[in-house]
Amino acid sequence: MSGNSYDTVNEKTQRIEIALKYTRGDLDRAKLMVSGKLEDIVVVKGKFYLPLDDKSGVFLVFVNVENTYVAASKSLVSNGDNLFTKIRIFDDWSALFNSILAYGKDSEGVSSDLDSVIQHEFLAGNIFSDVREKNLDYISNFVQDIIRGYFQDSDAKSQIELEETNSVEVDLHGIEIVDPGDGGAAASPDSKEGARVNESAFEETLREIESEAQAIVEGHSVLSPVKGKFLEEISPGDKIYVSLSGEDGLTEKIIDAYKARDHEGNPLPVTGRVVHIVPNEGQGYVLYVLVAKGIYAKMVEEENVKLRTEIPQKAGKTAETQENKQKFSRGLWMYLVFVVFIISLIVVLLLI
Fold first, then answer.
1. For 42, 43, 250, 304, which has the most beta carbons within 10 A of its beta carbon?
2. Is the four-CA dihedral 123, 125, 130, 135 of positive or negative sign?
3. Verdict on whether the full-model pTM lies above 0.70
4. Could you tell me if 26 and 70 lie in one domain?
């Protein structure tokens, strides 16, 4: 075996070992990642200018769209407009990262907590589905709101671009990635090792359930005191009505997708499938209801109330058909009894 082949084999083995860390030990997926056929990260590349303070900045946000968490971020803020006018966000993300490092050394950077702010806002805003779907317009507005709010400059302007890559390439570029085993989408940007030491079994159960979802939205049950189904009788798989009470962009999108608004534009309840019911430590239940692909509505109920459930149309028709059959059978039986009575009466009269 030649030296070059040996180096190639060693490099591929190294890449697979790295990939295994980000595919949770799945060798097949690790091989796909190394071959470039599995891209689990979308890089949000951006730059901005703050006319109020005459400052400019650039940032990279590495969003893991497979496991829905912010894997890493890197930003730089500097006096003047150089970063905004000279940085090309349409360049490859790795070249852009190198440019950030170079500008950081050559210019006087301005102290900023932008990295942690961006990470927090991406998590709080449930931006993952939009990044996965490359909804550039929505993400552009979302990022611009972050920049304007953080720097208190309503005239700030920004520009972003998206690029796909994978965790192996990011790792090999020397960028520290959040370990997906440390919480993934459920983790906050400032979470630390050992934060769950005092976590109860109930909290652990909720965390594990919420890690299954791409996003969690706030929901409330819709009651039906007369024809409803008691909470204790609800089972996973049942369809119930949910009132989505959150005031975030994702909730609005779900409501619009269901076309669940009245003539005045107010939201109406939507239907969802119950996926988890967790006893709330003796104080009712916590329900997780699937209201859209990968999205759970979280509902907390303290009492055994009657929920409004969706009755499958087919089942309703079957019950109606069965009732009609029973009515027909009773009518037919009464008719036959009457006929037999008349015949018996005629026979008796003939024999007299």
1. 43
2. negative
3. no
4. no
Query: How far apart are alpha carbons 26 and 29 in whole angstroms?
Result: 6
- Whether pLDDT at 314 is above 50: no
Tell me if 204 is assigned to some domain: no
Give whichever of 40-44, 233-237, 251-255, 304-308 has the largest mean pLDDT: 40-44
Identify the pLDDT of residue 275.
92
Number of domains in the chain: 3
- What is the domain extent for residue 254? 212-307
Q: What is the 3-state secondary structure (H, E, C) of the chain?
A: CCHHHHHHHHHHHHHHHHHHHHCCCCHHHHHHHHCCCCCCEEEEEEEEEECCCCEEEEEEEEEECCCCEEEEEEEEEEECCHHHHHCCCCCCHHHHHHHHHHHHHHCCECCCCHHHHHHHHHHHCCCHHHHHCCCHHHHHHHHHHHHHHHHCCCCCEEEEEEEEECHHHHHHCCCCCCCHHHCHHHCCCCCCCCCCCCCCHHHHHHHHHHHHCCEEEEEEECECCCCCEEHHHCCCCCEEEEEECCCCHHHHHHHHHHCCECCCCCECCEEEEEEEEEECCCCCEEEEEEEECCEEEEEEECCCCEECECCCHHHHHHHHHHHHHHHHHHHHHHHHHHHHHHHHHHHHHHHC
What value does the mean pLDDT of the chain take?
81
Same domain, 142 and 277: no
In tens, the pLDDT along 237-263 reads 999 999 987 667 778 888 888 888 888
52 plus 22 within the same structural domain: no
| 46 and 179 part of one domain | yes
Same domain, 277 and 301: yes
Same-domain pairing of 59 and 174: yes
Determine, yes or no, domain membership for 316. no
- The reply to whether 175 and 57 lie within a common domain is yes
The two tokens of residue 232 are 């204790």
| Predicted pLDDT of residue 301 | 86
